[in-house]
Amino acid sequence: MPTQRSEAFATAMVNERTFAPKGQPPPDARDNPTVSPNEVSEWLALFGPEPETKPRPARRPTPPPAPAPSAKDKKKKEEDDDLAEWFRLFGYKE
Fold it and tell me: How far apart are CA 63 and CA 66, in angstroms?
């Protein structure tokens, strides 16, 4: 495979670059196809009319996320969980 230096490649890219003419390009007919009334009738005969859809219900706003527990709260929960585990192990009923 032949190689070339990046400087030579960049120069070739700039020199060989062609620019589109100024102004808007002509519209592509495929972007806006026309369908005759006969074609519409044929499609409706094949697939039937488009079913009516009910509007979607409005989405309920999501509640804001709960604040993250602080280190103090985490430690307290761990202590409470440890205590509950010890009570369970020794058969203590609340």
Answer: 9
